[in-house]
Design brief:
CATH superfamily: Signal recognition particle, SRP19-like subunit
Mean pLDDT: 85
Radius of gyration: 24 Å
Structural class: alpha+beta
Strand order of the largest sheet: 1-3-2
CATH architecture: 2-Layer Sandwich
Number of helices: 4
CATH topology: Phenylalanyl-tRNA Synthetase, Chain B, domain 1
Oligomer: single chain
């Protein structure tokens, strides 16, 4: 637990959808993502309006000492006022929902970029798409009128 009452600790395991509630997840599945990073949780907290926070990347949760998941130390007053929540659970759900929407947006843009194919000037990727199946024997057509 936090030593001081004016700060709350937010562990990344609280948002891990691969953990059950009894293993340490504290938000519903709709607000959780698989294997969240500390940077992603910090981004979601900042987009929720929380400005006063510290990152501790090399710490591990007491019930999961085998993983160094990291935690955010957030000002309690700032978190409650910016998210308009009444408790830590409300703050966690707000951060989790923003984290989930960020993941969905990133996946959608990734799919959209892969559907578009390589960019116009990227010669290396464009060369990978070319095929010589139309040519006889896998050879290229000779230039300058020779057959």
């Amino acid at each position: 637990m936090a030593e001081r009452k004016d700060e709350m600790w937010v562990w990344t395991g609280y948002f891990n959808s691969r953990l059950s509630r009894s293993e340490g997840r504290r938000v519903p599945k709709e607000a959780a993502i698989p294997d969240p990073t500390l940077e992603a949780v910090a981004w979601a907290a900042r987009s929720a309006g929380i400005t006063r926070m510290r990152r501790k990347a090399d710490t591990s949760h007491p019930s999961r000492p085998y993983t160094q998941e990291g935690r955010l130390e957030i000002s309690t007053k700032d978190a409650l006022s910016s998210t308009k929540a009444e408790s830590k659970e409300g703050v966690l759900q707000t951060i989790g929902l923003l984290l989930r929407s960020q993941m969905k947006d990133a996946k959608a843009s990734e799919v959209q970029a892969s559907e578009r194919g390589p960019k116009k000037g990227n010669r290396q990727q464009r060369a990978q798409r070319k095929s010589f199946k139309q040519k006889a024997g896998g050879q290229r057509k000779k230039k300058f009128g020779r057959k």
